[in-house]
Amino acid sequence: MKAVRYVGNAASLPKAYLGSLAADSGYTVINSLPGGANVTLRLTIDGQPLEVTHDPLTRDFLDLATLVYIVDEIERRGDDWTREFEVLFPVKNSGLWAANEAGLSQMLTTLTGDKYRFSWCETPALSGFGAHRQRLPVGYDGVCLFSGGMDSFLGAHRLLSQGKKLLLCGHQADGTAASAQKELAAILRTTFPSQFKLIQCRVARSFATTPRFSLPDKCEESHRPRSLLFLGLAIALAKAAKIDTVYIPENGLIALNPPLGKNRLGTLSTRTAHPKYLMELANYMKAIGVFTGNIKNPFLFESKTDMLRGLDQKLAQAMLRSVSCARPSRFKHLGVRHCGYCVPCIYRRIAMNEAGLDSPDDYGFKLFERLDSVDSKKQMDFKALVSFARRVTTASPLNRELIVLSHGFFPVAAAERFGDKKITSHSPWGEMFLRWADDFLKKLGVMASAETRRLLGV
Fold this sequence. Notes:
By secondary structure, the chain is an alpha/beta fold. 41% of the residues lie in helices and 14% in strands. The strands form two sheets. Strands 7-4-3-10-9-8-11-12 form an eight-stranded mixed sheet, sandwiched between helices. Strands 2-1-5-6 form a four-stranded parallel sheet. The radius of gyration is 22 Å and the shape is globular.
């Protein structure tokens, strides 16, 4: 697929770029400029429209993350998973971007499994996204990703409890997530009324009925590049607010997200917060100078079950309002936010049981109680998790470290760079895997029905 970033149609712009705008060029044009945009980037702060002024380099980086996110949705993955993208991207400093293209392409391949080739050309700096009344506040200690899930809520709560002032950055991927972000922020505000601001970012196709360039229909739902957009939005906010730390609260088990079987190797399993991806992203951003601050994950060595162990019951309502599902909007007609059969839902049920908050009625499909009531496709993730847990519990300490690295090698220095402690081996991650696997298999004996255990072979 070929795509180009729209920066205007002035005659002074490079001929190759202007040629890509022709209807017969074969390029999909991604346009976020006012007046005919086919992509919208809108921000609100505590519900009010927000204007953020970006320096040219940050604006270029944010537009690149947006383009990658949008074209991902309109190019279907085939049986071999990997796609190829050819991107023409005008920027303020084409020499800088060209010199660091290898790092960018490698980082995107690690995250998405796709191959990207870029062409760069010069363009003047672009203007802002429109003037609004609200401006970005300063005097904050960090930007914290705030997805509407329990991990990001608990991360924000921990940081706020330490006295930090935060800008919570929420990406409005769908209506369910956007609503959860508001509900969880309201719960935080009862304890920390003046320590944070909620900034919600909507990046999506424009509602304009007559955009300058039309976009093909969406046809792909794997959303592997979403992490780049989410972090890109947070980094852009951090730069504008003069903040040097971005927090990405993600439980360590799902951050590493080891492939549950041979059929899930590579980016068939997401790498949203994987240390290898974060290392490549941080190195790339430092090389081009867009962000030289810190990216931190406060839950680097904790599974979701670890995080909910000993949970303060004052936070129970927040856990119930949080959203973990990979497909939260698909089952609204059933009056639930969770499917019950995806990997995140199964992780959630085990963790909620640890906190005494598990309820089968919160899920569209009750796999623990009636695994036989769903088809084989919906049983796959549950069976794969059981197989993975057994593999972890029977593995030697060395083999558990190899499981930690099954998505690709990353140095132990990642623990200090993205966490808060220095280690000498990958064993702390292996020990986390073992804690989770032992607990998961034990909880199945209590939570699962006899028929479900029979089908799972436990």
